[in-house]
Specification:
Structural class: mainly alpha
Largest sheet: none
Number of helices: 4
Order of helices and strands: HHHH
Number of domains: 1
Distance between the termini: 161 Å
Radius of gyration: 68 Å
Helix content: over 70%
Shape: rod-shaped
């Protein structure tokens, strides 16, 4: 090939003009160039179909994903703004709600206080009534004990009277003496 190049470069333009070549190119070389050009074009189409289309599809999918992410971000931003507005509104109402809760708690406390006081007064009244009943029962018990004692004393006196066979004056003295020991208040109802 070096010889050919040398031959071409050593040939004069006049010699090339007689052979029918343009710029030293023959028809076979032009045909080979055209054939190689078509082969390269077909190869580019084939490679484009095999490689470029998948890359293009991947880029389109990537672009769709990026667009979807942008849309989702915008939607999330709107939702966040809406939630922030709701949160701010709730914060404004917190003071009012706290005052309402405190007011309700105070009202319940006052009602509970009144109920506890009423219950305590009622319980105190029951205790007082029970104490009065217990005192009355104790009083009746003491009266029963005094009556029992009087009966015992009268029985003892009757035993003495029978044992001594006394006369009436002596019996009256003994009766008066016993009554003085017992006391006049015992026979009176209170």
């Amino acid at each position: 090939m070096t010889e050919l190049i040398t031959f071409r470069s050593t040939a004069s333009p006049a010699v090339l003009a007689g052979t029918g070549r343009i710029f030293g190119l023959d028809s076979q070389l032009l045909f080979d160039l055209l054939f190689q050009g078509i082969a390269v074009f077909i190869l580019f189409l084939f490679i484009g179909y095999l490689l470029i289309n998948p890359v293009r599809k991947m880029l389109e999918k990537r672009q769709e994903k990026v667009q979807s992410d942008i849309e989702n971000a915008a939607k999330d931003k709107k939702e966040a703004a809406l939630l922030k507005e709701q949160y701010d509104e709730k914060l404004k109402n917190v003071g009012e709600e706290a005052a309402l809760i405190l007011s309700e708690a105070h009202t319940k406390a006052v009602k509970n206080e009144a109920a506890i006081i009423a219950e305590a007064k009622e319980e105190a009244g029951r205790i007082r009534l029970n104490a009065e009943k217990d005192a009355e029962l104790e009083k009746l018990k003491v009266q029963d004990e005094v009556r029992t004692e009087i009966i015992n004393v009268a029985s003892a006196m009757a035993g003495k009277i029978v044992a001594e066979n006394m006369d009436e004056q002596k019996q009256n003295e003994l009766l008066d003496e016993t009554l003085k020991e017992i006391g006049d208040d015992t026979w009176q109802e209170r």
